[in-house]
Design brief:
Layout (H helix, E strand, L loop, with lengths): L5 H11 L4 H12 L5 H5 L3 H16 L2 E7 L6 E7 H5 L9 E3 L2 E3 L4 H8 L4 H12 L11 H14 L6 E5 L6 E5 L2 H27 L3 H6 L2 H12 L1
Antiparallel strand pairs: 1-2, 3-4, 5-6
């Protein structure tokens, strides 16, 4: 696993800005695990992907995760703090097929989600996801809403880290609700933030010393920070 420097974040952000979040997640994984083929990463179960992204986040930005959300009832802003090491712990994904209604299924991958994302209706996306995860090719199935819901629950149980639900309590109105922690969006926001800070540093140093972007990026982060301090004094 490769830790991301500020320059790495700039390269990632420049390459991934505007991509679908699924592709941004695979882009970050590919940079963090350069010896693993991209096609192989796309076939990782979502839980394994999320764990790997959490590990990359902890190694590159530290274990402390901090964010904000708003109460859906009264609009009160809530600060969310988590220990990322809890998300980075290895968990077991089911290796045996998931059996439902006489058919076998495997855990969801990024490739499966990409197929489902092409659908414009949620009901059709759920069917496409079920078909993509089905190991019994050639079999047809008339999916009811109950079947899809049951399969979704079974897939989540088989791959525990595929979804992280946060139980929240509003201190203002005592409303209780749950939200999903999207590790891809969380990590990409931090990569984007670090990249934009680096661009500001490059602008400041280029204006002060006349250096090119390449010259500035060739400096270590410690030396760049010291030059930035002197340029701003």
């Amino acid at each position: 696993m490769q830790r991301f420097s500020s320059a790495d974040c700039l390269t990632l952000w420049d390459s991934g800005a505007g991509l679908h979040p699924l592709d941004q997640g695979l882009l970050v994984l590919g940079a963090g695990f350069p010896n693993t083929p991209r096609d192989s990463l796309a076939d990782w179960p979502i839980g394994r992907r999320n764990t790997a992204l959490a590990q990359l986040r902890c190694s590159s930005f530290g274990p402390h995760l901090q964010g904000w959300t708003a109460c859906p009832k009264c609009g009160e802003k809530l600060e969310i703090e988590l220990d990322g090491r809890m998300l980075a712990e290895e968990t077991k994904t089911a290796t045996e097929p998931i059996i439902m209604n006489g058919q076998s299924f495997r855990p969801v991958t990024s490739r499966d989600l990409a197929k489902a994302a092409r659908e414009t209706e949620m009901s059709l996306a759920a069917v496409r996801l079920a078909e993509s995860c089905c190991l019994d090719s050639g079999k047809s199935h008339n999916w009811s809403n109950e079947d899809l819901e049951q399969l979704g629950q079974s897939l989540a149980l088989a791959d525990p880290m595929s979804e992280t639900r946060l139980a929240l309590l509003c201190p203002a109105c005592q409303n209780e609700w749950e939200e999903n922690l999207d590790i891809v969006a969380f990590l990409w926001t931090e990569i984007e933030g670090r990249a934009k800070r680096l661009l500001l540093e490059i602008h400041t140093l280029a204006s002060a010393y006349g250096w090119s972007e390449r010259d500035i990026l060739s400096l270590s982060e410690r030396r760049r920070a010291l030059y930035l301090e002197m340029a701003q004094s």
